[in-house]
Amino acid sequence: MATPLSPLTPRGIGLGDEVYSTLSQAILDGTFAPGERLRDVDLAESLGVSRTPVREALQRLERTGLVEVSPNRYTRVSIPDDNLVGDTEEFLAYTLATCLRLVVERGDDDTLQKAGALLDEVIDASRADDRAAVMQASAEFFRHIAVSTGNSVFLRVLRDSEVAIRRNLIDWQPSIACPIERSSRYEKLREAMLGREAERAETLTRELHGFS
């Protein structure tokens, strides 16, 4: 059965990475719906590649939890449930809280000032009660924080799990519903971060995501 994908146009990265990126995006945007079966031969034909990079990409997607494989039966897009969403939120909250603590403890002033400017964008979006804008601004803020840790393990784990996090939290809602209270918490986080109060910044980050 044909798939709704177009042949790949080389972008100067490894073919396996291109196939992985294409399939990831197709899952994220709903081209491949939860529960939909994926056949490597069909995907390879649509993308204009051999089955080898497709199989490699599917294996990577299985490791991130976006694809389920039952040997000799099926390979399909996984279906998120409440437990998976909750586990993803917990993983992200604690990982990012730890990353922020490291940056507050050892980052230079320029790094923290840039973080403060990015957090201002989160605060503005929160005051406007714009969920999509909060998500986008938060992603930029925490991307900066993760990179600024300089910790290769954190970066690798977050990079490998990024697509799964985005898919699992696609219907994310702020844990603090009131925009006034939520914005106030973000302002306290900014204050703690720029004041180099590492433990307080870590705690506030967890609390903003619903974890004490």
Automatic annotation (TrEMBL):
<dbReference type="InterPro" id="IPR036390">
    <property type="entry name" value="WH_DNA-bd_sf"/>
</dbReference>
<dbReference type="InterPro" id="IPR008920">
    <property type="entry name" value="TF_FadR/GntR_C"/>
</dbReference>
<dbReference type="Pfam" id="PF07729">
    <property type="entry name" value="FCD"/>
</dbReference>
<protein>
    <submittedName>
        <fullName>GntR family transcriptional regulator</fullName>
    </submittedName>
</protein>
<dbReference type="InterPro" id="IPR000524">
    <property type="entry name" value="Tscrpt_reg_HTH_GntR"/>
</dbReference>
<dbReference type="Pfam" id="PF00392">
    <property type="entry name" value="GntR"/>
</dbReference>
<keyword id="KW-0805">Transcription regulation</keyword>
<keyword id="KW-0804">Transcription</keyword>
<keyword id="KW-0238">DNA-binding</keyword>
<dbReference type="InterPro" id="IPR036388">
    <property type="entry name" value="WH-like_DNA-bd_sf"/>
</dbReference>
<dbReference type="InterPro" id="IPR000485">
    <property type="entry name" value="AsnC-type_HTH_dom"/>
</dbReference>
<dbReference type="InterPro" id="IPR011711">
    <property type="entry name" value="GntR_C"/>
</dbReference>
<feature type="domain" description="HTH gntR-type">
    <location>
        <begin position="13"/>
        <end position="80"/>
    </location>
</feature>
